[in-house]
Amino acid sequence: MNRKIVGLWMIVTLFLWGCSSDQMTHQQMTHQEDVAERGATVMPFDLERSTHIFEKLSDGGLQQVVSDDGDPEQIDLIQTHLREEATRFQQGDFHDPAMIHGEDMAGLQALSTGAEKLTIEYTELDEGGQIYYTTDDHELVTALHAWFDQQVADHGSHAMAEAPAESNSGGGMMGMRGNGSMRVAHHATIPDEYANLANPVAADSASLERGGEIYVVNCAVCHGDGGMGDGPAAENLDPAVSPIAHTSQMLGESYLFWRISEGGKGDPLTSAMPSWKETLDEEARWDVINYVQALGAGTIEPHSNMGGAMFDPAAELASRQEMLSEAMAQSLITQTEADTFMNVHTALDTLMAETGLRMQGDNTTTLLTILVDQETITQSDADDFERVHDILATAGLMH
């Protein structure tokens, strides 16, 4: 082909491609402007002075709206709007998002028809509010994530898919939302190969001795002698090392065996903990679980090797009260709700010690049902406990 013709063809192609690219960018900007204009008729707060965050989670997602300038009036408008929207969404009413983003919005139809399979909860933040969506339905999780993606795209510079990285230091936005680690752990979907596992190794003196030896060599440097996450190597780790003596009292054996086996890389929690499945055989991993559960139950004395505090039930009680006090200070719960939570949790602690069940996944409901059947608590108490528990976890206050 003649070189002049080839050159001319390339120039024309690049020109048309450039026009097409510019046209696409213009269309995208125009669409975002249209979304902002329609949003102003639905959202009472100022889109230009707020940030929307749509964080995907393995069991749903977390939607937040925060004021950029801390204006109390804007914060109040955000909180009122999100509170009302959460109520509508739980009823399957997604009319407002459809008004802003269009009736054909990604994921909208599935969320509207499947709302009864969603748990949708609103909580206030210092600078705005958030809605936490959870479901056991994989297709609804996919729909929710697609719904989030479209909102991030449509809101342009006013939206993001996760909180800013600089907020992980504990100030600003992260200070409001918390790291949510206990919330994620409680609701984590355990892989099939680990799901429903039960510890086949009796927690006798031989197992505790073996587990203690393994723990001292491999675990105490981060988790501390007493399992409270305060070992010498823990100081600069982010996220913080788990106080495993405490968390082992509330998380199921299958969850613990999974996390020890696979380590901290990947979903649902990312941490520096290595995978131990190639280093420790199955019996050794179960021995370690027996040991850390005994640390948390206070039935053994920790080895004195790396240093660190023991699990102290009195300190745990004080920490729990501090958590509830912070929730009341943020107007998330009332004093009556805090009192009910404390009373029910005390009853749960006793029951978990008696049955070996932990507050992992659906086990919390099972434990509460047992307490109701025993007439230790009322059904209203159980309902209030679960609601407050989720509020605390969603707000990042759960210890």
How many distinct domains? 3
Main beta sheet strand tally, sense and closure: 5 strands, mixed
Distance between the termini: 73 Å
Record the strand order, biggest sheet.
Answer: 3-4-2-1-5
Number of helices: 16
Unreliable sequence segments: 1-17, 19-26, 165-180
Measured as a percent range, the helix fraction is 40-55%
The ordered string of helix (H) and strand (E) elements is HEEHHHEEHEHHHHHHHHHHH
Summing up helix and strand content along with how strands pair, one would put the structural category as alpha+beta
Classify the beta-strand content into a percent band. 5-15%
Radius of gyration: 25 Å
* Mean pLDDT rating: 81
Backbone shape: elongated
Strand tally: 5
Q: What is shown here, in short?
A:
The protein is 54% helix and 8% strand.
Task: Write a structural description.
By secondary structure, the chain is an alpha+beta fold. The chain folds into 3 domains: 42-169, no CATH class; 187-311, Orthogonal Bundle (Cytochrome Bc1 Complex, Chain D, domain 2); 314-394. The protein is 54% helix and 8% strand. The chain is built from 16 helices and 5 strands. A 5-stranded mixed β-sheet has the order 3-4-2-1-5, sandwiched between helices. The longest helix is centred in the first third of the chain and has 40 residues, at 3-42. Mean pLDDT is 81; it is low at 1-17, 19-26 and 165-180.
